[in-house]
Amino acid sequence: MIPLIILYSIVLFIVGIWFGRQQMSVWKRSAQVKRGLSAENLAPLNRNVWRYHPRDARHLGSPVDYVVFDGMEAGVADLRIVLVEVKTGNGAPSRRERMVRAAVIAGRVDYEIVRIP
User: Fold this and answer.
1) pTM summary value
2) Does a structural domain hold residue 14?
3) 23: containing domain
4) What's the number of CA atoms in the CB half-sphere (13 Å) around residue 72?
5) Is 112 domain-assigned?
6) Is residue 28 part of a domain?
């Protein structure tokens, strides 16, 4: 009977270690996501990486992070509109972000006014 109890204890110990590692993985991923969101929100204030006037930027979040109206604050006549995606570390664009980029490159971008009666 004692060997069965020892075997049961060992199995519980191993399962406990496995669940502990899974939990650490979740916490690590959560911390990375929070760091990325913070960097995304603070990007316009970082002069080292942001080349536009912070007041020209409008945060969307998804599917692109910012729409920048480059030159709006300065009142430039030939305003440029830039879609900006902020990434930290080795982050890669998502499928939706790549679709938006392809549409912009192909020129499938329009301006439309919707009137509500």
Assistant:
1) 0.70
2) yes
3) 2-105
4) 14
5) no
6) yes
